[in-house]
Design brief:
Length: 323
Amino acid sequence: MADVTIKDISSLLLENSEGLKKALEEYRKGEIDEEDLSSVVEGIVKVQLSGEGVGEALESQDENHVALRKVLEERGLSAGDLLMGNEETGPKNLHPLYEALLAERLQFDEDAPELRTGSLPSGVRPAPSVVTSARNPVMIGAQLYNASDKVLKLISEGVRAALGVEEGEEAPLVQVVVEKDPEIYQRGSLPAPINVGEITGSELAQVRPVLEREFAWKAISTTQGRRSVLEVLKSLVEGSLDPSSFSLVEPEGQEIRESFEWFFRMSHEGALQSKFCFVDTCAGYFVNRVKRLETPVNFCIQTVDRISDREVGWRLDVFVSTP
């Protein structure tokens, strides 16, 4: 099996993958068969596949299954290729390449709640996205940090409640399994952006240079950071275009005509200039490209998450106009 195949399928599974880990666990235990697992995986990646150049597969057949089936058939694969091992010698495990991709994402994001079935691991910070109108990467990173703190506080309150410990009392040093997550940050699902308020200019002025770099890096290197910027980018691009000729639409069911990417090659935290206006630069690039196209133009903006290649940013997809 070629590495690129595992990368392609895994990158699709990493987004909007609610229920994936539970299904894989059930498959390992023999509670569901490969056909059931395939159905779960197909549902997870259907929308993503339509944006990866296989939208033509979505014809008159069952659209809940045909997209992934077409890709797998072309490459001689099945959903079971995500797992490997001999059932006679023990339970199957995730393919090491897929595990490596998950580890690479967690290296930057710390947590991926939509892929977890258990509680937040000890020492790991939550990774929610935020509601923001900020274009300054340091401000966005600070908001991400505040949102993570907010979730941590809610989880701590849940632990105290499970132990019957009041606020201010010292909690015993015991391992506690918390079955109930905060409403705003649930395991097995992609959390909605959290509103923690905007960072003021005076607050920003007090941020030390070392934290400026850390916050800016967090805004662009993490999946939650790039998701947070999406609405800001959409607003900037849409506001710079003639609404009678350019329309921001949802990607579901659309056929991509062409795409424009603006991405950043990640190396290390110090390689990113904290004062670089990447949001405005990206928006300006998108506006410049779509204004050259024949109108009318329907488009959407999504994140670029090629974490294994250290390429992250955003992509503007232009769709085929329907008569």
